[in-house]
User: What shape does this take?
Amino acid sequence: MKFADLHLHTNFSDGTFSPEELAEHGQRLGLAALALTDHDSVEGCARMATACAAAGIVFIPGTELTAEYADTEVHFLGYFIDTGNERLLAEIAKFQVVRQNRIREMVARLNELNMPLEADAVFALANCKSPGRPHVARALVKAKLCGSLDEAFRRFLKKNRPAWVPKAKVSALEAIELIHQAGGLAVMAHPGLNRTDNIIPPLVDAGLDGIECFHTKHSTALAERYLEIADKFNLLVTGGSDCHGFSKGKPLIGTVKLPYEYVERLMSKAESRKSRAGTAMTLALDPRPSTLD
Ligand code: AMP
Ligand code: FE
Ligand code: FE
Ligand code: ZN
Assistant: This one.
C-alpha cells in the first residue's frame, strides 16, 4: 500500500523543519506523496519539490489560507496551485503583512502585561515572512518568560486570552476563488477542529473541491463522519498530519497516512481543471469562430 501526508508545515511558516528535512523524514517513512501547506506562503515549495524529486516522492505544491464564513474561522488548503501565480502571490504578500502587524500587536499586549518581549526577537526567531502565534510562544520560552509553549498558549495566546489578537481574514468565497484562479483545488482543512459542518453546503455551492477527513486531531469517528459528508456532497477526500515539527519527541509527519488512491483522485481533478482552463485559454487566444472550420 502507498500512503501520503498532505498537510505539512516548514520553517517558511510556523513549522520547525526545513523543506529538505521534511522530505528526508517522508523518505525515511516510505511516504509516496507529500504536500507542503505552509500558512500564507508558497515560498518553501520550490525547495521541497527539488528535495522530493531527489527522494523519489511525488510532491504537491500547496498553501493553507485562514478565512471566515459567517463568523466561523475556516482554513483552506490549496493543492496543485501555480506557485508563480501573480494574484495569489500578491494576496499572500498582503496576508503576510497582516501577520507581521499582528505579531507587533500581540507583543504590545504582552508588554502591557509586564512581559518584556520585543517584536524583533519574535521576527528574528521566526526568520520567515509568515510569522504566527507559535513564534511568539517560542520567543516567550526562549526569553524564559514562559516555561513551555503550552503555557504560552494557555496563559496568553489562545483565543480570548489577554495577548490574543484576532487575525483579519479573507472571506471563504474569496479564498476559494483565489485558489481556483491559481489553478488549484480548494479543500477545507480539519473541519472537526473549527466545527464548520453547517457551512459545508454553501461552500460546496461556492466551488469547494474537498474536505480533509483524516487529520491528527480527528478521531476515527470524526474521520468517518467527514467521509460520509464527502460522499454526500461528492467532495474529494484528503488527509495529513498537520506536522509542524516534533510532537512529543517524534516528528508528526506520517502519523496520518492517506491511502494513495485519494491522491490519484485529487490529481485527476486538478488535471481536468487545468486542461479545461488550457482549452479556454487556447480558444481565447484563437479568435477564429469555430463554425468556419
Ligand atoms: P496563527 O496562524 O498565528 O493564529 O497561529 C495558529 C497556529 O498556532 C496553528 O497553526 C498551530 O500551529 C498553532 N497553535 C494553535 N493553538 C495552539 C495551542 N493551543 N498550542 C500550540 N500551538 C497552537
Ligand atoms: Fe500552524
Ligand atoms: Fe489549520
Ligand atoms: Zn496546518
